[in-house]
Description:
- This protein has no helices and eleven strands.
- It is mainly beta and about 120 residues long.
- Strands 2, 4, 5, 6, 9, 10 and 11 form a seven-stranded mixed beta sheet that branches.
Amino acid sequence: QVQLVESGGGLVQAGGSLRLSCAASGRTFSRVAVGWFRQAPGKERELVSAITGSGGTTHYADSLKGRFTISRDNVKNTVYLQMNSLEPEDTAVYYCAADIGTGWNHWGQGTQVTVSS
Length: 117
């Protein structure tokens, strides 16, 4: 099992930045792929970014246009999502999820990100 706790969300003006953190416990973290997802009101949950256990491979949604960066610190058992040049369309609840080999089956509680125009 993997337990995940997100933090770092908040209210920011358009053009600003936030860094989300996903702290994990319960399993050898360096073997766990982690993804960041978001869900805006009335929309489906979408994958924003993902990173392999070693951190050697990352994935980003095409719509991000290079504004977000995912990284991880396996000593601190934490995955980060640095979000720059935020837009009102980035407003959503952001979730991190872990894949231990059976899909995205472990989820955090989510953190709200609100970008004002």
